[in-house]
């Protein structure tokens, strides 16, 4: 076991924020992870997966445990479906591509989402009409309390929009070690009704799309709208899309007739936070090394050496301005540390 000291976390978070961890270890087996968890001299621990959904605002005084568990395994298959278990440290997009190359369908709409397999269920990643929960079977996680491996079924996980048990009552209590998915082997059920996908496929002159085509379309859309974290530090959507009552929405419509919305229930609608932030004048705004992305106002960016606290302060200003203009509170989606 090799614990390093004073390590920069810059390469371990997609925002590219340069803070230090007092102690750092990368674990590549469950046994090693259990040994590290048993160390009493480091009571303060931070579990790091792909680092794609966090904003680091200060040095971490404690032990950072980087989850580097690898492996993809076919658990079972029949004529129509395959069950696959992927280890938590597998890169999400590489896992999606592995499935597509094997012609396993179901997660192609989730192409190019940053992060790792083990962090995907925590916020139930979603894009273009599909969420992780749609193909999720179960996951395994080590309890920080008992140090034993437990299995969580889909029902146990209590998935919601960018939400799961791991963001609620199990928050900070478990480390996910693997996720099991059920994917189709043939007769793939494609989800291409999401506006941007249909028009992208048309641009690509594809009339009978395969899962490969859908993945390519999603990649093209994401590349045109969202900054690549390898080039510009970011954490995807910084805020969640707020859900508001229909009556509040109707009042807003009187002043903002072009406000988009998606029905949620009989009396609630979801409003794109990106639209609200753009209307509030923040889209494309740059303040030194940080700002709001020019193509998608939901995404806050680090152009170089921004501090996490700068980005946090900008997010608070955005929240305050949106509240003042629209009387809507927008919630932060990323974890602030
Ligand atoms: N919009 C604007 N201005 C903007 C951004 C968006 O007016 O700057 C409007 C668009 O014109 C459109 C609507 O908002 O009418 C929705 O935009 P988009 O399709 O880009 O989706 P989104 O609601 O902004 C969500 C997810 C994304 C996901 C896309 C596609 C959340 C918080 N974000 O964004 O997820 O890729 O849908 O499914 O739900 C992520 O979670 O990191 C992420 C990128």
From TrEMBL:
Function statement: Cell wall formation.
Active site as annotated: 162, 237 (proton donor), 333
Name of this protein: UDP-N-acetylenolpyruvoylglucosamine reductase
Coiled-coil ranges from the UniProt annotation: none
Cofactor(s) for this UniProt protein: FAD
Family of this protein: Belongs to the MurB family.
Domain FAD-binding PCMH-type span(s) in chain numbering: 17-186
Gene designation per UniProt: murB
Subcellular location: Cytoplasm
InterPro entries: FAD-bd_PCMH, FAD-bd_PCMH-like_sf, FAD-bd_PCMH_sub1, FAD-bd_PCMH_sub2, MurB, MurB_C, MurB_C_sf, Oxid_FAD_bind_N
Matches recorded under NCBIfam families: murB, PRK00046.1
Main location: cytoplasm
Keyword set, alphabetical order: Cell cycle, Cell division, Cell shape, Cell wall biogenesis/degradation, Cytoplasm, FAD, Flavoprotein, NADP, Oxidoreductase, Peptidoglycan synthesis
Catalyzed reactions: UDP-N-acetyl-alpha-D-muramate + NADP(+) = UDP-N-acetyl-3-O-(1-carboxyvinyl)-alpha-D-glucosamine + NADPH + H(+)
Gene3D superfamilies in the record: 3.30.465.10, UDP-N-acetylenolpyruvoylglucosamine reductase, C-terminal domain (3.90.78.10), Uridine Diphospho-n-acetylenolpyruvylglucosamine Reductase, domain 2 (3.30.43.10)
Enzyme Commission identifier(s): 1.3.1.98
GO MF annotation terms: UDP-N-acetylmuramate dehydrogenase activity
UniProt organism field: Flavivirga spongiicola
């Amino acid at each position: 076991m090799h614990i390093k000291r004073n390590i920069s976390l810059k390469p371990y978070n997609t925002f590219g924020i340069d803070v230090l961890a007092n102690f750092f270890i990368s674990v590549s087996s469950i046994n090693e992870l259990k040994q590290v968890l048993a160390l009493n001299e480091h009571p303060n621990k931070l579990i790091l997966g792909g680092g794609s959904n966090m904003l680091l605002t200060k040095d971490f005084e404690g032990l950072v445990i980087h989850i580097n568990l690898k492996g993809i395994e076919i658990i079972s298959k029949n004529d129509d479906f395959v069950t696959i278990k992927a280890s938590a440290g597998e890169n999400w997009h590489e896992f999606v591509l592995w499935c597509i190359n094997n012609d396993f369908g179901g997660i192609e709409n989730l192409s190019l989402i940053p992060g790792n397999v083990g962090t995907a269920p925590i916020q139930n990643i979603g894009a273009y009409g599909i969420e992780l929960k749609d193909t999720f079977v179960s996951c395994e996680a080590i309890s920080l309390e008992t140090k034993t491996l437990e299995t969580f079924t889909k029902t146990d996980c209590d998935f919601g929009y960018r939400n799961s048990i791991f963001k609620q009552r199990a928050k900070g209590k478990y480390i996910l070690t693997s996720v099991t998915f059920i994917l189709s082997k043939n007769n793939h059920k494609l989800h291409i009704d999401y506006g941007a996908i249909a028009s992208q496929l048309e641009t690509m002159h594809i009339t009978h799309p395969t899962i490969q085509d859908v993945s390519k379309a999603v990649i093209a859309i994401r590349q045109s709208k969202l900054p690549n974290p390898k080039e510009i530090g970011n954490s995807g959507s910084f805020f969640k899309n707020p859900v508001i009552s229909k009556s509040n929405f109707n009042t807003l419509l009187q002043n903002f007739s072009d406000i988009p919305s998606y029905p949620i229930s009989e009396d609630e609608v979801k409003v794109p936070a990106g639209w609200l932030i753009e209307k509030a004048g923040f889209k494309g705004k740059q303040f030194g090394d940080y700002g709001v992305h020019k193509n998608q106002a939901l995404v806050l960016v680090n152009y170089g050496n921004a501090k996490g606290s700068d980005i946090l302060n900008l997010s608070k200003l955005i929240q305050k301005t949106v509240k003042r203009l629209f009387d809507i509170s927008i919630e932060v989606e990323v974890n602030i540390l």
